[in-house]
Amino acid sequence: MPKAEKLEQVQELEQTLADVAGLVLTDYRALKVAELQDLRRRLRKSGIEYHVVKNTLFRIAARERGLPDIDPLLSGPIAIAITKTDEVELAKGIVDETRTLKSLRIYGGVVRGRVMGAEEITALAALPGKASLQATIVGVLAAPLSQLTAMLHAPMRELVATFAARAAKA
Predict the structure, then answer these.
(1) Which of these ranges, 22-26, 90-94, 131-135, has the smallest mean pLDDT?
(2) Which residue among 81, 105, 127, 154 is least enclosed by CB atoms within 10 Å?
């Protein structure tokens, strides 16, 4: 029979994994405690949670939450970075941190129910974020409208300019 403490940890992990948009599994072993705390603080500013977890308990919680089979990614002690909003920002945040902390290594992750390797997570980080894509779409939609507005106002502007020129001559 499992210990009540382990059951409680699995339930906490299940709650953490609820409605997850993406998660990235990392190797945290070479990090010092102060570096780990700094990492958590920096990631938290981007809306990313970072948890050190036991593989077995994480595997159980992931199965209970219906995540795909992540057993190939669970090699050695792991820490998981989780976001409930923008998975591209998650990938960017972790990849940026691996550049800062050379000892932090990405194993892979799960994005929108799909298992990805470390290379795919790095490629995902190269994509523009959700806010950037939304701004691009708004710009594309707004450009024809502003051109139409300018085109509709052009005859009126020309008429006013003609009257102003006539008034200046007289």
Answers:
(1) 131-135
(2) 154
Domain borders along the chain are: 4-127, 128-170
Helix (H, G, I), strand (E, B) or coil at 169: helix
Phi-psi region of 47 (alpha: psi -120 to 50; beta: other; left: phi over 0): left
Q: What is the pTM of this model?
A: 0.72
The answer, yes or no, to whether residue 1 has pLDDT greater than 60, is no
Length of the chain, in residues: 170
Spatial contact of 99 and 74, defined as CB atoms under 8 Å apart: no
The answer to whether 150 touches 144, Cβ cutoff 8 Å, is no
Which class is 4-127 in CATH? alpha beta
Q: What is the pLDDT, as a whole number, of residue 50?
A: 92
b/e burial code for range 47-74 (CB count within 10 A of at least 16 → b): ebbbeebebebbbbbbeeeebeebeebb
Closest by CA to 40, choosing from 82, 73, 8, 70, is: 82
What is the 3-state secondary structure of 92-149?
HHHHHHHHHCCCCEEEEEEECCEEEEHHHHHHHHCCCCHHHHHHHHHHHHHHHHHHHH
Please check the confidence at residue 60 and state whether its pLDDT lies above 90.
no
